Task: structure prediction
Amino acid sequence: MNDNAPVTAPPPPLVTIGAGPASRGGALPLVTAIRPYAWGSPAAFPELFGTPATGEPQAELWAGAHPGAPSTVDGVPLGELIARDPAGMLGEPVVRAFGPVLPYLLKVLAVERPLSLQVHPTMAQARAGYAREQAAGPPVGDAARTYRDPFHKPEMVCALTGFHGLCGFRAPGDAAAVLEALGVAPGPDGERSDAAAQVRDWIAALRAVFQQMLDPGNPAVLAARAAIERALIDGPMAAGFDVYADLARACPGDPGVTAALLLNHVRLAPGQAVFLGAGVPHAYLGGVTVEIMANSDNVLRCGLTGKHVDVPELMRVVTFEPSPPHFVPAEPASPAASGRQIYRPPVEEFGLVHHALTGQEPHRLPGGVPQIVLCVEGEVAIEAARAVRLGAGQAAFVPASLTGARLTGRGTVYRAVPGLSLSPSPASPAPPASAPEGWRA
Result:
C-alpha cells in the first residue's frame, strides 16, 4: 500500500529505529525509517516498538532498499551495499531473476484512518505505462504521474493486531443485497428513485459502475452517491454499516464511498494474511499489520483521496469481475521445525516466514538468499561469526553469502525472503473462495 500524504508542510522529522553497528561475519543491522503519513497512528509504534511519541502520526516502518526511504547500514543505504556486491548480497538466482536489486520491501503499517482506495498494475501494464510517461516528459516525482517505475506491485498483509480493509469486488447479488438493506433498492410498491435505479443498473456492469462513479459532472451519479451517503449515515439500517458510514463522514461526496460498498469487507485476526494481486481494488481501514510487496511504487487511486486520479488508465487496470479475497494460509515449515510458519503468496518476488522463539531451540536460517529479519516482540539474536541482537521494531539484513546463521532468544520475528526461494508446498490448499470463520465481515 502507498498513500504518502504528509501530515503537515513541512512534515515532522522521520523517526528511525536502529539495531547497532555492523560487524564482519554477521547479519547487517538496519536503521529503518518510520514515515509520518496522515493516516497513521500516533500511539501504535510507541506502544509496540518503544519509538518516541511525537504527537504526530507514525504510519509505516520501511525495511529494505526502496529509494523512497532506504534502510541504512552504518549510514550507507542498503541499495548501495547491494550494488557493490550483487551476487554476495542477493545470491545468483535472485540476480538472474530480478537484476541487482532487492526484489521486495518489508513494512509495518499502523493504520488509524482509511487509506485511499487503490489498485496496482500488472508487469506489462507498468512497463507500458512507465515508458509512455517517460516519453511524455513529466519527471517521476510529478504529482500527475501514474507510473513511478516499470514494475508491478503485488502485496500481502499479515495482521499483527486485529486488522480490516476492503478487498476485491463483491458478487453482484451480494452488492444488491447491501443496497436493499440500506433502503436504496426498490420499495414494497416496486417504485424506486432515479438514483436507486442508477445504482442497481451499475451492479450489472462493474466497469460502468466505476466509470460513472468517477464522473464528477453527471447529475444522476451525484444524486446516487448522495442517496447512498444519506442512507449510510441516517438510514434505518445504518447501524449495520458502521465501516461505510465512517467513510461517508470522513469523505463526503467522494466516489470512493459508493465504490466501497461494492467491495468485500475483510477482517483479519493476528497471524492471518491476505494477498492483493494486480487489478484488485483495495483499501486498508484500521489496525497494525506487516506488509510485504514487490519493490515498486506504482499506485492508481480510485477514491477516498484528494490526490491525482487517472480515470482512463484506472479503467484499463482494474479487473472488473467479482473476486473473493485471496487468503494466504500460514503453513508449518515442516513437522520438525516447530515455531515456524510460512506464507507463500503466488509471486516470485517475496514470501514471509513467521518465527515464534521460546528461548530454547534455535531456528536455523537458510543461506544463499537475501533475507530481512524483523523482530516485532521480545528480544532475539541472529548468531553467526558475530551476533546481531534485535529488540521490538528492529531489523537486520542477512546477505545471501552468510551461511550457518540461526535465530535465538525469546520473541516474535517475521522474516522476508524472495518467493522463488520457497518451493510450493504439495499440501498447500487452493485459496479459499470464502473466508475462514471470523475473517470476513
